[in-house]
Amino acid sequence: MTTRSGIGIDVHPFSTDPGRPLVLGGVHFVGEPGLEGHSDADVVAHAVCDAMLGAAGIGDIGQHFPDTDERWRGADSLVLLAEAAARVRAAGYRFVNADCTVIAERPRIVVARDEMITKLTAAAGGPVHVKATRPEKLGSLGRVEGIACWAVASVEEV
Ligand SMILES: [Zn+2]
Fold first, then answer.
1. 51 CB neighbour count, 10 Å cutoff
2. Number of domains composing the chain
3. Residues whose CB is under 5 A from ligand 1 (ion)?
4. Could you tell me the residue range of the domain that residue 45 belongs to?
């Protein structure tokens, strides 16, 4: 049984539109400023998507869900994640697991972590773990200009 791993990194700046919701790992953080992006700008779902696609060796999220395609405007990124998992299966691989670390000065991720894990796991069709760290006020992420997420994923040949 051959197992392969992939990495995914995503960063989104905060939006200047006060009406934009913040969605991380499929969870809406009520009252928090949203991130800029073509879809719902869910950096966590995007990083997991990229890690999964990379593990299967079938490109990246921008290639599968281009931001020039109106179908993905405002898209629920959990739908993109489920679609990425389907494309991984179609390429002959089974998603094994993913782990990710959200890098955010705010909001506090821990309050919604279990819900994020549940939603990401359901969309990906296998266990997705979520961790978070604060950049300790360093750099652009520390100045709360945006949120980043790193993920790794494993798939195995079926
Ligand atoms: Zn993204």
1. 31
2. 1
3. 10, 46
4. 3-157
